[in-house]
Structure to design on (754 residues):
């Protein structure tokens, strides 16, 4: 639900006054919204305030809280969140927004505060609302009919009046009791539960999971009654059967079927399409192939694959696929499974893809990295990126890894180490590589490539660059990707790419242009050309690959424009930034477009700069965009428009532009005061001179201030005063001072000979 403001305050229980409490802030991109998760202590009060359009403040009610922001931005782009920082002198953080966004927050599992940020327009009346437990309790006690906006806290938090169930659940029509049309009374009586009640409870279970953010769709069918590897236990114990109503029994049975778990096991998340944790018995890969799969198991199973009348034996199909998978032959295993479309073993099919280097695209192991069994291992190694609030059971993962055969450890170990490092566990990643090195007695290219990934993720760029260069310089399966990453590292550090890598990038991008790696290699080649100053070649190829994914072309456009703006000479910059301006629109990121617009303004070209400021995706309400817009208006002698663009902005940059706008409009007094505040003495004195107020410029004695004081000095009027030596001396002295002041003013304003 998108709201202009969500403000919920829970007062914290008593916390320790001395011990510091660490609050880790994690994040992740989730399609059309950005999620930040704070691991807060239990019973900690919190509030969220979005009183401005460019920031969200999250405050906690505990004491001695320390925030860990090391991973707050690791998985974020700058589309919605620009930064996360601690609030000064307060127990909270500030989320700086990069868009017109609204926030939605909720508490998950009593210990995780989740903040979801989506695009939207926040209400100008947004403010923090006090929702302490005492106040909510008083309102509940005194109000017979709670309002729709009242906040409920405690074990079942929510918004609005409390229903028979959760107030956040869908509203259903009154259920019709008794049998329905086309249904006999005997059928209804046999179930012990009215069909309408059954549907109601089913919808409640789904809505509860959706409300808690626990639904995770997966392309799997529900377990079938005939599946040998899945046991559906939906019956309750005799004791509970005598104590529970049919509705409660059915509710627990529904949960079991939906989540694939034992009825009554409420310790795991609900996930439509599969079990929360795939059973360990279905993942015993070490027992699948026997002692010698290639010599014994596989030939024997292949001979029994087809039975009487050339019919496939499904048990043999599963056994043969498992045998292939146990030795890392994932493609062969998937081919065997494809022989029989009725064979359902989604976990086996997913593992067969994972051992071949693919991700778990069907989501069979989604959300299972915190499981206690082998599912945690396959969930991590089969994922591309985990949500910010995902737990990782390192012990279960390493235990499963050690239990694999040496062949499988060699094949999967480097990939596991890389995934651990990507999720913020570098020590565990290095531990995996150390174990693998001891087991094999060597360090192969896959292990070296994984080590480079770990070094790179931990900002050890020099070590990573050295390893990547070594791998890229020799043939091997990792050479193309190592080359691309080495070039990316060089461009990130604004270094030139050595000639060997540059030549390799051109060869790889041509040779592998039609492969899956083609777009990434093309991007690496363009980066290398641009980093080495070959702008004509790189920008000439930028628009030659319209069939490549838009994301790759957008990344290439952004990187090339950034390098061009930061490094190129004015001639090259103007040539390539102005030649195809319309072609960059929609591909260049907001950050790179603003960078180009700023340099165009520095070069005195406001009109093309304004065109870049109108690019798709640029939020014109952001302060940096408004500052550039004001600069463009000032360069075009439009001070009134510049003033409009600066409305509400604070800071030295805004004040400097506002002073220039006021100076252009003739308000020299304001300009002098503003320049004095900024410490710009020269402009302050010039504005003060134009205003005729010498004291505004700081009161320093110089040619301009002396000239202004000539207007204020008074001398005796000879016509109205009796002639005397005193009057004559005063007039003569004033004349000498005037001549000296005028001479100093002429010297100060004299044009140079050049």
């Amino acid at each position: 639900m998108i709201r202009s403001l969500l403000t919920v305050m829970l007062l914290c229980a008593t916390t320790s006054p001395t011990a510091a409490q660490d609050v880790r802030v994690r994040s992740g991109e989730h399609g059309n919204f950005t999620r930040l998760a704070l691991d807060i202590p239990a019973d900690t009060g919190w509030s969220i305030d979005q009183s401005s359009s460019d920031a969200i403040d999250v405050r906690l009610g505990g004491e001695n809280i320390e925030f860990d922001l090391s991973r707050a931005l690791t998985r974020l782009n700058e589309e919605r969140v620009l930064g996360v920082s601690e609030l000064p002198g307060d127990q909270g953080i500030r989320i700086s927004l990069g868009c017109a966004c609204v926030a939605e927050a909720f508490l998950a599992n009593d210990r995780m505060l989740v903040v979801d940020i989506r695009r939207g327009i926040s209400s100008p009346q947004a403010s923090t609302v006090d929702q302490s437990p005492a106040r909510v309790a008083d309102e509940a006690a005194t109000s017979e009919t709670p309002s729709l906006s009242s906040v409920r806290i405690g074990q079942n938090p929510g918004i609005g009046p409390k229903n028979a169930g959760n107030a956040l659940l869908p509203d259903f029509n009154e259920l019709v009791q008794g049998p329905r049309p086309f249904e006999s009374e005997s059928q209804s009586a046999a179930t012990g539960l009215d069909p309408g009640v059954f549907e109601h409870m089913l919808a409640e279970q789904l809505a509860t999971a959706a409300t808690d953010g626990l639904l995770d769709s997966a392309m799997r069918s529900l377990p079938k009654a005939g599946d040998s590897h899945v046991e559906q236990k939906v019956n309750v114990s005799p004791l509970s059967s005598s104590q529970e109503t049919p509705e409660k029994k059915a509710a627990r049975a529904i949960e079991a079927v939906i989540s694939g778990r034992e009825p009554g096991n409420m310790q795991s998340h609900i996930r439509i399409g599969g079990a929360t944790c795939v059973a360990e018995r279905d993942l015993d890969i070490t027992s699948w192939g026997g002692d010698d799969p290639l010599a014994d198991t596989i030939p024997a199973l292949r001979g029994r694959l087809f039975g009487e009348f050339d019919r496939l034996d499904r048990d043999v199909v599963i056994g043969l696929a498992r045998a292939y998978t146990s030795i890392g032959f994932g493609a062969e295993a998937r081919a065997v499974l494809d022989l029989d479309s009725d064979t359902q073993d989604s976990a086996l099919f997913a593992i067969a893809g994972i051992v071949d280097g693919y991700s778990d695209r069907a989501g069979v192991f989604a959300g299972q990295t915190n499981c206690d069994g082998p599912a945690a291992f396959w969930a991590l190694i089969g994922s591309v990126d985990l949500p910010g609030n995902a737990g990782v059971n390192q012990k279960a993962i390493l235990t499963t890894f050690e239990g694999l055969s040496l062949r499988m450890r060699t094949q999967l170990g480097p990939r596991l180490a890389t995934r651990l490092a990507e999720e913020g566990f570098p020590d565990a990643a290095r531990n995996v590589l150390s174990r693998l090195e001891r087991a094999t007695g060597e360090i192969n290219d896959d292990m070296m490539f994984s080590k480079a990934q770990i070094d790179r993720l931990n900002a050890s760029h020099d070590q990573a660059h050295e390893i990547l260069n070594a791998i890229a310089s020799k043939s091997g399966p990792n050479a193309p990707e190592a080359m691309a990453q080495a070039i990316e590292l060089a461009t990130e550090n604004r270094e030139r790419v050595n000639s060997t890598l540059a030549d390799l990038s051109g060869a790889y991008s041509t040779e592998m242009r039609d492969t899956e790696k083609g777009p990434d290699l093309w991007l690496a080649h363009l980066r290398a050309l641009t980093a080495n100053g070959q702008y004509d070649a790189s920008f000439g190829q930028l628009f030659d690959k319209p069939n490549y994914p838009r994301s790759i072309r957008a990344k290439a456009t952004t990187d090339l424009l950034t390098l061009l703006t930061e490094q190129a000479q004015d001639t090259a910059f103007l040539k390539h930034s102005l030649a195809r301006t319309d072609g960059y629109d929609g591909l260049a990121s907001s950050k790179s477009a603003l960078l180009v617009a700023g340099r165009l303004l520095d070069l005195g070209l406001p009109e093309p700069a304004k065109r870049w400021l109108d690019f798709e995706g640029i939020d014109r309400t952001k302060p940096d965009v408004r500052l550039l817009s004001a600069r463009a208006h000032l360069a075009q002698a439009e001070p009134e428009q510049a003033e409009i663009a600066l409305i509400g902005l604070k800071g030295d940059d805004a004040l400097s532009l506002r002073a220039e706008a006021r100076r252009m409009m003739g308000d020299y007094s304001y300009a002098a005061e503003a320049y004095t505040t900024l410490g710009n003495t020269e402009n302050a004195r010039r504005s003060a001179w134009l205003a005729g107020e010498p004291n505004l410029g700081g009161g320093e004695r110089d040619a301009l201030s002396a000239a202004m004081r000539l207007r204020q000095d008074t001398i005796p009027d000879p016509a109205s005063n009796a002639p005397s030596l005193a009057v004559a001396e005063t007039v003569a002295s004033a004349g000498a001072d005037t001549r000296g002041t005028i001479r100093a003013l002429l010297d100060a304003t004299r044009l140079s000979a050049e």
Q: What stands out?
A: Residues 102 and 711 are 58 Å apart (CA to CA). The mean pLDDT is 75. The longest helix spans residues 725-748.
